[in-house]
Structure to design on (879 residues):
């Protein structure tokens, strides 16, 4: 098992060389080991081990920012040259320096020291997953278990040298019953939290319950989006609109709405970078992270900024840089997004509840308009599932929906970098397929 | 205890460089290169696949390869499914000639060319313009325990331009992109940028589409996405093998209108071209549907051995990822209908143009895709522009509803995601008339 601290000498060598050729430099290093098993029906068909190593170098000279990435320690000099060359072409921008080191007062909890990515542990988990799926009518079509352990490091020529360790365990299952499919997954930091039984039972329930699904007529109905369905729209439409870069570049629907009530008065959205799977004390620029209120009482409070965007537009970094840019460069993102609204029993009154959306990525990311196919959708009433719906389309506008929220459920679910409840939206247009 | 030997192993190693340029609102945001060096070693033990993915594999040497094979073999002991591999033809096609090698054009010049495209989109009323250039070049080395060994160079490049228009607080966007395997394609493309900008401006006054069941005409770009989403994925042998395709057990059956022939052809010199597939199999044009009858599944060696009824050579991998069954260049063949006949056949309905992508649940047999824009068709004539229009349907019923195929097939490059991997593809079709399509829109 390798760790970023095995490469401390290399990082210092790169920074020393870079400091001679640029005003400032930064090295970001990420290494990981993982083991995963993949199911083909109910048998393991693939066992995979991945050993990953990647280093990003960023240089800044007179406001010219350059970046490059390599998967080979031996090519660090090529990588540094490419970063410097990149900086010579990129336009100069206002730049007030990479961050200085700070002391962190809080710890984060992203590492399970007992989690070792090995095939034996993965085999035990996948056996438990398959056993828990027995008893239903549906058959296992696929799925898997994955265990990972990684570490990352950021260091710059101002003395920043931070490391972070993380672990992950995930399980997924796909079940089919005729032409009814069910899929569920879990993804956690601590091995002990991985709930293979819930994954199996839910996937089996989806496949079996929807085996008897029928069509509906087109109608206007309240829609309950479960966390997995809602996260697709929030991630694809709302979060880009809250990126400071998109706001200033003329690509955000919310650009002129800061301080204005534009969503339901109970709607809350914030990034709490200390609690969740994406928890980190420092962002991809090496800036200390902090809680960031995006929306409070239905009013936009702030946008997210990385260092580069903040300097350019005279703002302050919100510690929101993540490593998602080209060439391993930082870009604006979130760490542990939390969403909430007024609590209500969202399945009490009659509504259509959907667990998935097919084609959410085809939404108009600027206007918020979307038109998607529902997946595992059913009528709900009095807190119980009613008739399952075989196929229907949902059309709407996410920004308009967020201004007309009926309520949010009690229970929340963490999905990737988001934690969210299921949310009920008023009066949406559903196109049914009943002839 | 005797040392276990793998029944089979192979190595796929990529060493390459990617170039990225990004310009937004006249500012060069980034222009640089990154370096990849990653390999996958697969081994078959007594049951299934064990595999090891290693970054920085160039440093590994022969001892590293031997260790990786041993590690993969050890991992394979965790598998239970006995994997067999079909015998296939091997061989590598020549890589299509490159017209202008982007590696011989300086990063500075490529940046200037992209800047010219980006600036051309800055028409009055356009509030944001964003252009990207991506180039990936590398050498793939493949070897297996059967004695096959190949090495080939891969070079892909392309640009995209996005324009955002704004008026009175309303915003709309439009995008154009072109990707190629035959060299640099950024010269004299300012017209494409203006097309994107003009369309974004037009969309400001377009009406939201009305949803419902209606006749739809699909343009060649969207028709290609339809072929890819509605048919292509469901014909992939791994999905058929695992029982999550509605096309399972339907070989030889009439699953589409007789005017429909759907092909996946990795040998075509299009963006989805590859000289050899990711497990060394030779490539072959594969008719998935011939005159409406399901004719072939797309296969890897493994799925061909289990499922049969199809053609291997369709295993693809994103970099050093595990090879899975994928499409390459997928299209609906030309028919013989003229555009006038298609408009007349539609009479009243909607013409859908461009694509914002799509998705399919092949097990349920339900697909969805979104057009960039469209036009109402009234009395066989094209009328007002509409926006945010999508289409969904059931594979098995929708394919019978293709009433007419035009004779103007065009291919459009793009990327396809499956199993967490993204690979370059091309989709294409002539204009299609789809009867009784379910169109999504915000109003009934």
């Amino acid at each position: 098992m390798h760790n970023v601290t095995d490469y401390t000498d290399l990082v210092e060598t790169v920074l020393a060389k870079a400091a001679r050729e640029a005003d400032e430099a930064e090295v970001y290093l990420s290494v990981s080991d993982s083991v995963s098993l993949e199911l083909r029906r109910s048998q393991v068909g693939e066992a995979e081990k991945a050993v990953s190593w990647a280093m990003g170098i960023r240089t800044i000279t007179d406001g010219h920012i350059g970046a490059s990435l390599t998967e080979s320690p031996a090519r660090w000099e090529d990588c540094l040259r490419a970063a410097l060359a990149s900086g010579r072409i990129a336009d100069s921008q206002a730049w007030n320096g990479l961050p200085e080191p700070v002391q962190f007062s809080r710890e984060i909890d992203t590492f399970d020291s007992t989690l070792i990515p090995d095939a034996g542990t993965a085999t035990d988990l996948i056996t438990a997953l398959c056993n828990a799926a027995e008893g239903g009518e549906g058959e296992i079509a696929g799925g898997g278990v994955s265990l990972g352990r990684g570490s990352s490091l950021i260091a710059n020529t101002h003395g920043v040298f931070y490391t972070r360790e993380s672990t992950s365990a995930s399980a997924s299952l796909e079940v089919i019953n005729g032409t009814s499919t069910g899929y569920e997954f879990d993804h956690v930091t601590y091995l002990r939290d991985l709930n293979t039984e819930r994954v199996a039972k839910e996937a089996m329930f989806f496949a079996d319950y929807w085996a008897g699904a029928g069509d509906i007529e087109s109608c206007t109905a309240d829609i309950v989006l479960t966390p997995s369905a809602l996260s697709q729209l929030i991630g694809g439409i709302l979060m880009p609109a809250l990126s400071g870069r998109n706001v200033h570049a003329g690509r955000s629907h919310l650009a002129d709405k800061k301080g204005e009530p534009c969503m339901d008065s109970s709607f809350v959205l914030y990034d709490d970078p200390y609690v969740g799977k994406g928890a980190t004390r420092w962002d991809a620029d090496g800036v200390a992270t902090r809680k960031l209120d995006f929306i409070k009482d239905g009013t936009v409070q702030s946008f997210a900024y990385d260092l580069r965007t903040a300097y350019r537009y005279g703002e302050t970094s919100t510690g929101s840089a993540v490593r998602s840019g080209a060439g391993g460069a930082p870009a604006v993102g979130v760490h542990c997004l939390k969403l909430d609204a007024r609590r209500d029993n969202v399945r009490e009154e009659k509504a259509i509840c959907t667990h998935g959306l097919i084609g959410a990525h085809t939404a108009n990311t600027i206007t918020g308009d979307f038109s998607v196919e529902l997946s595992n959708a059913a009528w709900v009433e009095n807190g119980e599932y009613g008739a399952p719906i075989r196929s229907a389309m949902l059309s709407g506008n996410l920004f308009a929906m967020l201004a007309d929220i009926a309520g949010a459920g009690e229970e929340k679910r963490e999905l990737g970098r988001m934690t969210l409840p299921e949310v009920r939206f008023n009066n949406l247009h559903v196109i049914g397929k009943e002839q | 205890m005797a040392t276990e030997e793998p029944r089979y192993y192979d190595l796929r190693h990529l060493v390459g460089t990617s170039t990225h340029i990004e310009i937004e609102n006249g500012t060069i945001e980034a222009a640089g290169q990154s370096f990849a060096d990653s390999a996958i070693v697969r081994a078959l033990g007594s049951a299934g696949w064990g595999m090891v993915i290693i970054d920085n594999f160039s440093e590994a040497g022969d001892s590293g390869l031997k260790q990786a094979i041993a590690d993969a073999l050890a991992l394979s002991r965790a598998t239970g499914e006995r994997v067999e591999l079909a015998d296939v033809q091997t061989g590598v096609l020549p890589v299509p000639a490159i017209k202008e090698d982007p590696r011989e054009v300086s990063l500075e010049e490529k940046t200037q060319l992209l800047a010219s495209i980006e600036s051309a989109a800055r028409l009055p009323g356009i509030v944001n313009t964003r252009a990207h250039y991506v180039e990936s070049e590398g050498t793939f080395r493949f070897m297996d325990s059967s004695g096959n060994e190949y090495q080939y160079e891969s070079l892909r490049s392309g640009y995209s331009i996005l324009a955002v228009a704004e008026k009175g607080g309303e915003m709309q966007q439009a995008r154009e992109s072109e990707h190629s395997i035959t060299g640099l394609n950024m010269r004299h493309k300012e017209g494409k940028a203006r097309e994107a900008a003009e369309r974004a401006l037009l969309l400001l006054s377009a009406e939201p589409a009305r949803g419902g069941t209606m006749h739809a005409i699909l343009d060649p770009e969207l028709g290609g996405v339809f072929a890819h989403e509605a048919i292509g994925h469901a014909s992939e042998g791994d999905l058929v093998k695992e029982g999550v395709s509605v096309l399972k057990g339907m070989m030889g059956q009439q699953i589409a209108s007789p005017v429909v022939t759907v092909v996946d052809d990795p040998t075509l010199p299009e963006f989805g071209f590859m000289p050899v597939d990711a497990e060394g199999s030779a490539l072959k044009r594969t008719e998935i549907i011939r005159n409406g009858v399901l004719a072939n599944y797309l296969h890897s060696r493994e799925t061909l051995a289990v499922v049969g009824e199809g053609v291997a050579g369709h295993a693809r991998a994103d970099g050093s990822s595990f090879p899975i069954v994928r499409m390459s260049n997928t299209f609906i063949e030309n028919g013989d209908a003229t555009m006038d006949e298609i408009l007349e056949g539609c009479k009243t309905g909607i013409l859908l143009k461009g694509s914002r992508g799509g998705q399919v649940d092949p097990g349920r047999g339900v697909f969805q895709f979104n057009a960039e824009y469209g036009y109402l068709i009234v009395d066989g004539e094209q009328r007002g522009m509409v926006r945010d229009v999508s289409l969904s349907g059931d594979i098995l019923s929708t394919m019978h509803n293709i009433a007419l195929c035009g004779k103007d097939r065009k291919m459009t490059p793009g990327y396809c995601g499956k199993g967490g991997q993204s690979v370059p593809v091309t989709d294409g079709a002539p204009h299609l008339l789809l009867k009784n399509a379910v169109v999504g829109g915000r109003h009934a």
